[in-house]
Structures
1.
Amino acid sequence: MMLCPEVVLFDMDGVLYDSMPNHAIAWQKAMQKFGIRMSAMDAYATEGMRGVDTIRIMVKEQQGRDISEAEAQEMYDEKTRQFGLLPTAPVMEGVISLMQKIRRDGLQIGIVTGSGQRPLIERALTDFRDFVDDRHIVTAYDVKHGKPAPDPYLMGLQKAGNLRPDQGIVVENAPLGVRAGVAARIFTVAVNSGPLPDSVLRDAGANLVFESMPAWRDAWDDFYLQTSGNVKAD
């Protein structure tokens, strides 16, 4: 398909905020209280999935039982509590200047997150108030099927004005999020801000992989110039 970009859809954790180390700690502490083993690598590997879905899968795998979404939500609430006890994660280096370039070029900006933690959403609305508003944010509670299903990014296109997949660009850092963008048939850029090798993101289907957000920011001008000339996505 050809690209005619009108919106850039950003994941939140590990993309807008350098928050994944905190999430990994919170997941491990919270799940330990319920007898669930969860490593830091598990947290990175499942990043982007709705928290309640992650919990239901891990309970099934480790305890052999199916739990309701309500029970999973109670466990996720503990994870949210643990996260709130940790130091505030900083805004990812380079992301503000990248957004300035995107808006300069006339594109909309949206946020598509698997998080359902309202304090994080409110913080994003404050920190990125010059670029995005509440109408352009997709959270875990906006979709029934979270990442890696395409639903969150398709909802992001819908909120941006019922756009087509070729009118969007996804910015992700996690394999499940990349798979969601690819499943939605949107050009997907991966910024590797975590411990996973680049190959994991490429194998998930990322069209481009950058080592950092500043690297993606610095590549934006040439990338957008090429997209204006109809860059072909896989």
2.
Amino acid sequence: MKGFVKRDDDFQERRKHLVDLSDDQLKDKFWALVEEIVDPLLELAEKNTSPSIERSVLLRMGFSSLEAKPLVDGAVDRGLMGHGVGHVVYKVAKEKNLDVRTAGLELIEGKHWDDAVKMFKGGAK
């Protein structure tokens, strides 16, 4: 076909370093390579977030989109975004002996934010 470049078949050459490995060794090598690829992605996910990601987490925790927005805004305003807004709500709930939904609704009302800041910026996680 016109426009296609024939690729030299170098499979035998590229597989030489794998030829003497057993099935178990091949499996181990495969999973080691997968980890090399996935670990940086997990690190990025752990260290980076966005308001839309945090709203999505809150939706999965049972909050409506109208409730999620002020929670995210409150966390952004107080520099708590990097801890995860769902995590903030959870920690407040645990600290105040509330269910997660009640803690979130009370944060929306303006309660507990000072405590949340102390929990996260005071070194406790």
